[in-house]
Specification:
This protein has 213 residues and is of the alpha/beta class. Helices cover 54% and strands 12% of the residues. It has 2 domains: 22-110, Orthogonal Bundle (Helix Hairpins); 132-206, NAD(P)-binding Rossmann-like Domain (Rossmann fold), CATH 3.40.50. Strands 1-6-5-4-7 form a 5-stranded mixed beta sheet. A two-stranded antiparallel sheet has the order 2-3.
Length: 213
């Protein structure tokens, strides 16, 4: 068949299974990371409390350490509690500052995720193309094709070893939600078949349409 030029770019055509935790799950993970950073910083400061100076001249308590961790990681930095010894200052440079970065990145995780999503998807796509072989290509994702994919999975085929090709982005997204690889495009086009790695596939499943009476 003659090669044709697709209107869909490679990165947009290939859909890998999404790794999603859901809104509440993602929120809980970010809150957990932020709290972990706060607790770790507070414990470090409390452990080295003799190396810190309180503006009031009193000893550093666990509450003071938690307060210092909060204003430091949030970059508020009131300056009423400061590291005064070399050890405490070195700990700030090597440990607390990286924790501050993690804390801030966690707070703006949504923005960072959007910025890095495309690069992450392209990396996963390149890695998949290098390793894919002996997989199953399913053309279309209608009722019969969906049943065929479920049957393959029930028989022990790994979902990531199944590639669904469809011109419908909705169908491809549905297939990816089942854990399979999706390719958006017309299966009669050579470039789309190459995107689905047909040359190294073990089998291709094409469901014949029911005859018209």
């Amino acid at each position: 068949m003659g090669a044709t030029v697709s209107s869909v770019t490679t990165s947009e055509a290939l859909r890998l299974p999404a790794r999603r935790y859901g809104p509440l799950g993602s929120f809980a993970i970010r809150v957990g990371i932020a709290v972990a950073c706060l607790v770790a910083t507070a414990l470090l400061v409390y452990h080295e409390r003799d190396g810190y100076k309180d503006g009031k001249g009193t000893a550093i308590s666990l509450l003071d350490a938690l307060y210092y961790a909060t204003v430091t990681l949030s970059t508020t930095g009131y300056g009423d509690i400061v590291p005064v010894t070399d050890t405490a200052r070195l700990m700030n440079v090597l440990i607390i500052t990286p924790l501050r970065f993690v804390f801030l990145i966690t707070l703006v995780g949504t923005t960072v995720e959007v910025l890095t999503q495309r690069s992450r998807d392209e990396f996963r796509a390149k890695r998949w193309r290098k390793t894919v072989q002996d997989h199953t290509v399913v053309v279309g994702f209608g009722v019969k094709e969906r049943s065929a994919v479920r049957a393959l999975i029930d028989q022990g085929t790994r979902p990531e070893a199944i590639v669904v090709v469809s011109s419908s982005t909705v169908e491809v997204d549905e297939a990816a939600a089942m854990g399979t690889i999706g390719v958006v495009g017309d299966a009669t086009r050579e470039d789309v078949l190459r995107e689905a790695a047909v040359p190294v596939a073990a089998r291709i499943v094409v469901v014949r349409p029911a005859p018209v009476s």
